[in-house]
Design goal:
The protein is mainly alpha-helical. The chain has a single domain, classed as Orthogonal Bundle (Arc Repressor Mutant, subunit A). Strands 1-2 form a two-stranded parallel sheet. A two-stranded antiparallel ribbon has the order 3-4. α1 packs across α3 and α2 packs across α3. The radius of gyration is 13 Å and the shape is globular. The relative contact order is 0.22. It binds a DNA duplex through α2, α3, β2 and α4.
DNA sequence: CTCATGACTTTTT
DNA sequence: AAAAAAGCCATGA
């Protein structure tokens, strides 16, 4: 069964447990590619934040990254709020204790 | 098909 | 430590 790259990005996003985060690079790697930037692009068209909690996807550096196309401003504040509501602290645009909150995908998956 | 673009990442200043 | 440059690749025009 072939799923599009974007579709797989969304499905992996849905796997991240509440209170944990993953990164754009992790998702790309889990799909067997290095298309980190394309991951962000795929999330930009997220059809449902309920189904796909894309606020749990952050940068490899532990910084927040973007939300709904915005890299700063109100959208990012919303992302921060959602994370803190789940117990992930954010200070100065960064995940506090990033290593402990970092969810790792168990096995690589391929979409092709 | 080619080309530019971006919710990125890593290396180099 | 902070900023810039270079590298990455799926997607849409």
């Amino acid at each position: 069964m072939h799923r599009s790259f974007s579709q797989n990005v969304l499905e992996l996003t849905a796997r991240v447990p509440k209170g944990m985060v993953t990164t754009y690079a992790d998702i790309a790697r889990a799909l067997g590619t290095g298309a980190y930037r394309a991951v962000g692009r795929a999330l930009q068209t997220n059809p449902s934040t309920k189904t796909y909690p894309c606020h749990r996807v952050v940068k490899s550096t532990g910084e927040l990254g973007g939300y709904f196309g915005e890299t700063s401003g109100p959208a990012i504040l919303a992302k921060k709020s959602l994370l803190e509501k789940e117990g992930v602290q954010v200070t100065d645009n960064r995940i506090v204790n990033f290593a402990e909150k970092h969810f790792r995908f168990s096995k690589p998956r391929f979409y092709k």
